[in-house]
Amino acid sequence: MKKYKRGLSTSMDLSVTIPSLIFILSVCLFSAIFPQATEATLSRIKEFVFVNLNWVYVWAITIFVLFLLFLIFSKYGNIKLGPNDSTPEHSFFSWIAMLFAAGMGIGLMYFSVAEPMTHYTTTAFSETDFQLRAKNAQLYTFFHYGIHAWAIYGLVGLCLAYFAFRYKLPLSLRSCLYPLLKDRMTGKWGTLIDVFALCSTFFGITTTLGFGVVQINSGLQQLGILPETSFFYQMILVSVLVSLSIISAISGVDKGIKLLSNTNIVAAILLMLFVLFMGPTNYIIGAFTDGVGNYINNFFALTFDTHIYDERALPWFYNWTILYWAWWISWAPFVGLFIAKISRGRTVREFIGAVLLLPTFFIFIWMTVFGNSAIWIDAHIAKGALGALVSDPDSMMFQFLNYFPGSQIASALAIIIVIIFFVTSADSGILVMNTISTRNAKYSPKWQTIFWGVLLALLALMLLNAGGLQSLQIMTLITALPFAVIMVLFSISLMKALIIDQNYYDSTFSVTTIPWSGESWKERLKKMVNFKSKSAINDFIDSHVEPALTELKAEFDSNGINAMIQKYDEPLRIEISISHDTVDNFVYGIKCHRKLVAEYFRQERNLPDVEHQKTYFPKTYFGDGREGYDVKYFTKNELISDVLKHYDRFLEIVSQKDNELFISNNDED
């Protein structure tokens, strides 16, 4: 723990925090002092990147999607994000709600009407027929918010969760390159990656929250709560909302963030159902069905389409598809790290399936309900009035709700949702920034969380007042290009680790270690037909297991190997372990394990007698989390032989160079 001169403790890693703060403050100040010049310069750079290097984004996104789809159906899908015996920390609903709130947030409200309407009114496509324009608007909205977007988040989140919880590495982007960088990840390359992640997270959150405050201000003006949209009111809104975000972040994931995310997903569903049933219901349901089929049919065509043969559509392609890919990539360090933080104990298959498919399915419903309703209203009721507002996305959602009965209540609910999205994005962003700046320290003083929240609010307001938010957004989009390449390296690194992981657990025993003896078969049969009580298993551990391990320890000691025996109560278990500095410790243990006996088994006359529904047996466990087994039939010598069987396997595995990655001791102090 470091100390400042005034005694203020900090867990920040200064090699990451100081360069990040210098870069963040420099870019923000430059954007605020010279907003027009900065925006013009960065816009030229962005245009060059989008026009000449758009293929990098297209191919990178394609690789991410195909790679994750491969993992779902591969044998690697069963691997857990953590030890084999780990379980999820959050309920499935809370987990989905939190990743969804962090992944899309304000953008879901900001563009749910604006984007479909913009595609509907664009001149980039030749179709003039209402149905064709509406169909294309829905298709490209699905494309930009669907599987491709979540594949970006999913890849980063999967890599972070896997290496942090499975390999016990820091929850940091540098850990995702461990199979390629090895120990160099703790050097300047690892620090550079962490600095990039911190700056990218800060810029992405700042710009998004700046635009979110403008939308909240616009909505409150429409409801008559605020008299105008001005910087003064935006300053008040930022102060209040960031304060709530800081309180939520300090309370932690299990309290504030989870509660707000669960509340917000329920509120969003209520608003969506209101629009669905009060709007053109039959049209919406038919449009959703048709839209999903259209998306599936055009999935690969959309994935690889660069519009190179349609020059009229190229500006639209750069300003929408490529911009979205860059935007999702720029948000990936933040969203991926947050998703990883809440995903311990999930399997690879469960993680990918949930992150790719469930949010995508919900977004398809959401965008259809709002987007297609807006298009239908514009064509049949508003007569083009909504389409004329595409240049004012801040107020479009609220103008759209004015066409519904009870529009004031619906608009109020929409504002509440935007506010909660604001807070959930900000609190998870603050939490992630503190995690990156401390390199995932287990304990951090509360002032650090407050510091990141205050800095976020001050710089967002400064840029909002000076008109520099656009420059910061462009800067964020430009930095997405190198990170797209880094993410490809993440894929290679993860695949290498998964192969080693699978081979490790598939490793069998040497044939010379398999204990087999026909002796004492009568005693074994007697054990088979007698179901044991808890005290009987405890006696077995005391009378058979402990003497066997004690004798084995003495023999290890005589051969220069320092072994240790530890015994624990409730439930009774005993283990022998051999500590190592550079590889994981060897652990072989036996514990008293309970199981329930089926009722029909107890009542069957020609089966062994069972007096109680609960029975107990001695079960092995291992340091690497592999599944154990029943050893109640083992004699003392067979127990010793069984330990040596696993020790022989351990020595064989740690001696193989390819397994260096998986068995390295990555426990941190």
TrEMBL record:
Major location category of this protein: membrane
Record membrane topology: Multi-pass membrane protein
Annotated compartments: Cell membrane
Membrane-traversing stretches: 12-34, 54-72, 92-113, 142-165, 189-211, 231-253, 265-285, 322-340, 352-377, 409-437, 449-468, 474-495
Keyword Transport included in the entry's annotation: yes
Pfam families: BCCT
Source taxon at top rank: Bacteria
Alphabetized InterPro entries for the sequence: BCCT_CS, BCCT_transptr
Keyword vocabulary terms for this entry: Cell membrane, Membrane, Transmembrane, Transmembrane helix, Transport
Entry's family note: Belongs to the BCCT transporter (TC 2.A.15) family.
Protein name per Swiss-Prot or TrEMBL: BCCT family transporter
